[in-house]
Write a structure and sequence with these properties.
It is built from seven helices and ten strands. With about 200 residues, the protein is α/β, with parallel strands linked by helices. It has a single domain, classed as Rossmann fold. It has a six-stranded mixed sheet with strand order 6-7-8-3-9-10, with helices on both faces. It comes from Stygiolobus caldivivus.
C-alpha cells in the first residue's frame, strides 16, 4: 500500500501530487520536465518534500533515509561502473552463497540475456541496454518493497518481452513497481496508470 500526499516547489511549478494505491504495478506518463522523476526521488528519499507525507504499508517513511525505506530507484545512471557483472549482482543479493544459485536461475539469466564473456565484463563496458538489464535485475535481487523505474526500460532490446517477464517475476517475489515512461503503450503492463502535468497527477484508468 502506497499513500503519498506531497508538495515540492520546483523551478517552474509546485509539484502537488497524491497517490493512494494498493496496485502492485503503477505507471506514470507525462512530458519531459513534468515532475515525474522528481516524484520518484521524493518517494525514494533522495529529496525531501516541502509539505506532506509518504507512507508505505501504513508506515510513515517521510523522514527515513533512502536505505531504510527498502525502496530502490533505478535510473539510466544507477549502476556501479567498475564492478564486473557477477559482483554487481552480488551487490544486490548480499550473500555470496546464493550467487551461483542466482546465476543458474533460467529466468534471471533470461532477463539478463548475457553470454558467459559478458558476465566477466565491468558494468561500464556494457551497452546502455545491457546496463539497464543489469541494474534492474540487481534491484530485484535486493528484495525491496518497491522498485521505482525512471525511464530504465526504454533502451532495452525486446523491451516488451523484458517488461512482461520482469513484472511477472516481481509479482511472484512480492515486489511492487512504479515505472515512469513516455511510451503510452507501456500502460498495458500497469494495473493503474497516471498522467503527470506540471507536477499534478491525474488518473488515466
Amino acid at each position: 500500500m502506497l499513500d503519498v500526499k506531497i508538495k515540492k516547489k520546483l523551478n517552474n511549478f509546485v509539484l502537488d501530487s497524491e497517490i493512494n494505491e494498493k496496485s502492485k504495478v503503477i505507471a506514470i506518463f507525462g512530458k519531459n520536465g513534468s515532475g515525474k522523476s522528481t516524484l520518484l526521488k521524493l518517494i525514494a528519499g533522495f529529496l525531501e518534500p516541502d509539505e506532506g507525507y509518504i507512507k508505505i504499508d501504513n508506515q510513515d517513511v517521510t523522514k527515513y533515509p533512502p536505505w531504510k525505506r527498502r525502496i530502490v530507484l533505478v535510473t539510466p545512471e544507477s549502476y556501479l561502473p567498475n564492478l564486473v557483472v557477477k559482483k554487481h549482482l552480488l551487490w544486490g543479493i548480499k550473500n555470496k552463497d546464493k550467487l551461483n544459485e542466482v546465476l543458474q536461475d533460467n529466468r534471471i539469466r533470461g532477463l539478463l540475456s548475457f553470454n558467459e564473456e559478458t558476465f566477466k565484463k565491468k558494468a561500464k563496458e556494457l551497452s546502455l541496454g545491457m546496463r539497464q538489464r543489469l541494474s534492474l535485475v540487481t534491484a530485484l535481487l535486493s528484495s525491496p518493497r518497491y522498485i521505482l523505474v525512471d525511464e530504465s526500460f526504454a533502451n532495452i532490446n525486446n523491451k516488451k518481452d523484458f517488461m512482461n517477464e520482469y513484472i511477472s517475476l516481481t509479482r511472484e517475489r512480492g515486489v511492487n513497481i512504479i515505472f515512469v515512461s513516455q511510451d503510452i503503450s507501456d500502460a498495458e503492463f500497469a494495473e493503474r496508470s497516471y498522467w503527470m502535468e506540471n507536477g499534478v497527477l491525474k488518473l488515466m484508468n
